Amino acid sequence: MKSKKAYTGKKPFEGIVPKEKRYAHGNFLRQKFPLEMHAVAHIENRPDPVAIFTESSKNRISKLMPLLHERVLESPFTFYRGNAGIMASDLSLLPSTNMKIQVCGDCHLLNFGGFATPERKLIFDINDFDQTAVAPWEWDVKRLAASFVIAGRDKGFTEEQCTEAARKAVRSYRKQMAVYAEMSALQIWYHHIELTDIIKSGKLEDAKQFKAKEAKRALLQLPHEKDFAKLTYRNNKQPKIKDQLPLIFHASPESEEEFYNQAELSYTRYLKSLSQDRRALLQRYKIQDVALKVVGVGSVGTFCGITLLMSATGDPLFLQFKEACQSVLEPFTGRSRYLNHGQRVVEGQRLIQSASDIFLGWTTNDYGQHFYVRQLRDAKVKPALGSMSLDTFMLYAKSCGWALSRAHARTGDPVILSGYMGTDKLFDEAISAFATSYANQNEKDYALMIEHLSKKA
């Protein structure tokens, strides 16, 4: 697909432009921004990572801060997961192509997984968009690659094996982008990665949650049946959410009335963000109970929770609401076009994911907090990182690279991106070298954070 003629550098963005010229533009950008520059990870006089973490922790629920510190400091990998802001700051100071598309923003290996589409198919895709923004495409690739090195070290793999996992993720991304470069825009938009295809290939068979039997069981269960049995109890014959401290709890008695008033008001505003058919469906349900629920690593301390709704026939529905703050990328890429950060998350997710939750929407309360809303879990199938063998870890890396490539092909130009990365291994080697170097930096930052918090104790 390479053009036989040298490309002059004029951007081919006006009118209908043949693939050959767009590919040639990618080649031109490769000369302007050499692939070797992506190996650079060292930054002189970088901002203090502890200060970045401290700033990101402001305005969080104070009583949950010890739990946040506990989760973040569990290992270098959990530290990495909980500090996307540190890496965003670093990436902003490193060489970049500055080719901006809609990115995930927090693209690490545990932000991928299986979930059910509205058509009840299980697909494999990115599943976390709290930090989504318009930013340089390679930032996602670098964060994903570094996550495999850091997680691999946590699992006790050798340095060579960790670097190879990062390399496989990047190589898969590059090769799949070449495939998407041959597709039409509609073909790319319709394309999705079915979890059964990954299972049948044998890629993830020894990870329990990805076995064919487990995936099939997730779809056959009645919606929210498992969560209802696990999370509720009967109070005067009415189902209520069980407190499971410190992870799930109700508002204190003195703030209970105001909490529920705000919950109902926010729910009413949320409904307005949905299409008419979704609103009609939710009219079959009424709010039964609301509770706060701790989620993830980096989100601990933000205002998140679950709402239990019941239909007239007793069918449960759990909606999860998560506080949406400014993306950690925005200080370096510019403000979001959306005034409500919940809408930023929702619109970004719809652009990137091949299929999104039918109840995905956004809202706000009277205190100016922004939220996005989705189903608590809908046949979610999580990767079992702890039980992954080395072979599965490597194949999972390829799957994540594939999924990220599909996501980027939706809002970026896969022909230009493929032309830029080329057909050789130079891009793979540069990013995997970056990943190893950045993993070293992450370990130093982790040690600094432990020292900082031990002094405060």
Structural notes for this entry:
By secondary structure, the protein is an alpha+beta fold. It folds into two domains: 19-219 and 382-456, no CATH class; 222-375, no CATH class. Helix content is 47%, strand content 14%. It contains 18 helices and 13 strands. The chain has helices spanning 19-32, 49-56, 65-72, 76-81, 84-92, 137-154, 159-181, 185-190, 195-200, 212-220, 225-231, 256-272, 276-282, 330-333, 341-352, 390-411, 414-421, 426-456, and strands at 100-103, 112-116, 122-126, 133-136, 193-194, 232-235, 238-241, 248-249, 285-293, 304-311, 316-323, 361-364, 370-375. The strands form four sheets. A six-stranded antiparallel beta sheet has the order 8-9-10-11-13-12, with helices on both faces. Strands 2-3-5 form a three-stranded antiparallel beta sheet. The chain has a two-stranded antiparallel sheet with strand order 1-4. A hairpin with a 2-residue loop joins strand 6 (232-235) and strand 7 (238-241). The chain is globular. The relative contact order is 0.20. Residues 1-12 have low confidence and may be disordered.
